[in-house]
Write a structure and sequence with these properties.
The structure is a homodimer. By secondary structure, the first copy, chain A, is an alpha/beta fold. Chain A is built from 14 helices and 11 strands. The first copy, chain A, folds into 2 domains: 195 residues, D-Maltodextrin-Binding Protein, domain 2 (3-Layer(aba) Sandwich), CATH 3.40.190; 141 residues, D-Maltodextrin-Binding Protein, domain 2, CATH 3.40.190. In chain A, strands 7-6-8-5-9-11 form a 6-stranded mixed β-sheet, with helices on one face. Chain A has a 5-stranded mixed β-sheet with strand order 2-1-3-10-4. The longest helix of chain A has 36 residues. Chain A is globular, with a radius of gyration of 22 Å. At the A-B interface, α2, α3, α5, α11 and α12 of A face α2, α3, α5, α11 and α12 of B.
Chain lengths: 359, 359
């Protein structure tokens, strides 16, 4: 039930009972229950992502003692996985859990709030969100759609994908039939790949039958569940196209604004908590899945050479230039994102980079 | 006022007013206000750390609409900076913000919950806390002290310190008069350094007068505030001894257990939120301070060579071995910590490490 309907219903009941003669005390208003529905872009029970959205809803209920309850629907249960943005924007549901780059068709700039090729990793993009202009810009980009965004999870660095042909030079992308959506797909298309956007359910069989030579997905944990290790020879790192994909909580603006300040705080704090715990879970589960894949010993691990990465970076710059030329808002977001990255990088070079060189 | 006193006070007032004839409804109990005091190990107004503790308290008040308010006292305002553990353990105050490694004298194992030389970085230790056994072990170690711990911030990778002599080989530590507390100090003592533990207020003058050759502190943001750039020539990276120091929220166990489940959730969620926002602030502010130092152009930046780091790592292993030999609990914690690091590292090597190599 929507909040307004609830209030309306309560009003009728209250009038019927003739109890509107006194002013409701503050505690009465506090006791009022708000019931929200959340839709996600994930499959039912999908580890880390769908379970994370459900953990968020549970935390909000705990924080508010059930004054704000959120019923979570996986992709397809109420609206299609790619219908999350519209459903929340139009107020069909009050909130959603998804990834901003799915909405490039609504706003080119949205992509920067998930990840861009050779963009920021999780630690970097969170600093941009919380202590740079990242979240402010995201709010600005989403405002015309009646949406309030919050960072709510991160996949960490993704993998570069599964290949049935070795990629020894940039020329090995020529004619490569690869499934790769988004900006990454545009980049390898520039390198000569035949990019396809097969639905998730068709990738496995297509790899098996040779209709596809390669695909990217997420990281070891989710990739293993797709079974790609059974139908692909080589597993490439790193995910240059997704160096730390942020997940989003999106809230219908009117629904958010109708919340009392404590309920708003509950939503915001639970989103921030999900942001850190989801990344931690990705790190742990990807590490465990990688160990399992190595133990099974069937997959050959490869890393893109520096030379290939340098060339992919140059092509990425071209793709991004084309994107921002189309859209002044994306241009503004990219400028701020790039300035922040340029501020962080010299620090990262003597801190985290040094740490990882020592592992 | 403590909760019990409040209830007692309320009882008297209620009896006086003769309103105890009916059973108080659930909402009445909910309206009851809990007032806590927090002590910290930070100086008043200390950026990121003290301001972070204050932001936490503000968030808890928002989440609970003032049903749980936390008055924050900086180090020395109520108890000394190093008196936080005892004050919370004994229930003098209900909670504190500090760093577990300060309490090595209470429990050797406590050090692992902040950082150890060549230990985990922020992303790694958070995965250990939230998705490994880290937080469970921490709770176990703190239980005998009537303390409930929560991860509540991280400094990120620290700096290696300020030096007035170049460190070109491990032998350059011989006779070096350096201020360095904790395990890091024990490690460089093994390398021949004359380790001192001067109070913070005496470091600057000691460096200036040559009483000290070197000191470590935190990272660019806090180091600059100490003015070390004016009295030291070389600024070394990385902080091998503190690759990601976790900060702690500690709560008196009885005070925590007396909270209703929604207030407990408010404390836990706000701590997790502080955990990610504090790290983000450290990243941003350290990057900005580093840029400022470079602009001023007075400091010479250096990085410890691979050879030196390898030797410091070997000495760190010796120090840790000596520590855990003294204490079976520390041994158990170190074993779990090390297993988790060994699980994470192969994944880190093809994900975050690759990311940082490309920056």
């Amino acid at each position: 039930m929507e909040r307004r309907e609830f209030i309306k219903g309560l009003g009728v009941a209250a009038v019927t009972a003739g109890v509107l003669a006194f002013e409701a005390p503050a505690v009465w208003a506090k006791g009022e229950k708000v019931m929200w529905r959340m839709v996600t872009s994930w499959t039912p029970g999908m580890p880390i992502l769908q379970t994370g959205a459900e953990r968020f809803a549970k935390r909000v209920a705990q924080l508010t003692e059930g004054r704000l309850t959120i019923q979570v629907f996986a992709g397809g249960e109420l609206v299609p996985p790619m219908g999350v943005f519209d459903a929340v924007s139009q107020g069909t549901v009050q909130c959603g859990h998804s990834a901003a780059y799915y909405w490039a068709g609504k706003s080119i700039a949205a992509q920067w709030f998930t990840t861009i090729p050779f963009g920021l990793n999780a630690q970097g993009i969170n600093a941009w969100f919380y202590n740079g202009n990242g979240l402010k810009l995201w709010e600005e980009v989403y405002a015309p759609f009646n949406l309030v965004p919050r960072p709510a999870g991160n996949t960490g660095v993704q993998m570069g994908g599964w290949f049935n042909k070795e990629i020894k030079t940039i020329d090995d992308f020529k004619g490569l039939k690869m499934r790769m959506p988004g900006l990454g797909g545009k980049v390898i298309a520039k390198a000569g790949a035949a990019v396809t956007l097969l639905p998730a359910g068709e990738i496995y069989t297509s790899l098996e039958k040779g209709v596809l030579d390669a695909t990217e997905w997420v990281g070891p944990c989710h990739d293993m569940r797709m079974g790609f290790q059974k139908v692909a020879k080589f597993y490439y790192a790193p995910g240059w196209h997704e160096p730390g994909s942020a997940l989003e909580l999106i809230i219908n603006k009117k629904a958010y604004e109708e919340l009392s300040s404590d309920l708003k705080a509950a939503v915001d704090a639970a989103a921030a908590e999900l942001n850190i715990t989801m990344l931690s879970e990705f790190e742990k589960e990807n590490a465990a899945a990688l160990a399992q894949l190595k133990k099974e010993g069937k997959v050959q691990f490869r890393t893109f050479s520096k030379e290939i990465l340098t060339k992919l970076k140059a092509l990425s710059d071209e793709v991004i230039k084309e994107q921002i030329e189309k859209d002044p808002i994306a241009q503004k977001v990219h400028k701020d994102f790039t300035e922040f990255k340029n501020l962080l990088n010299p620090w990262a070079a003597i801190s985290e980079k040094e740490y990882y060189e020592g592992i």
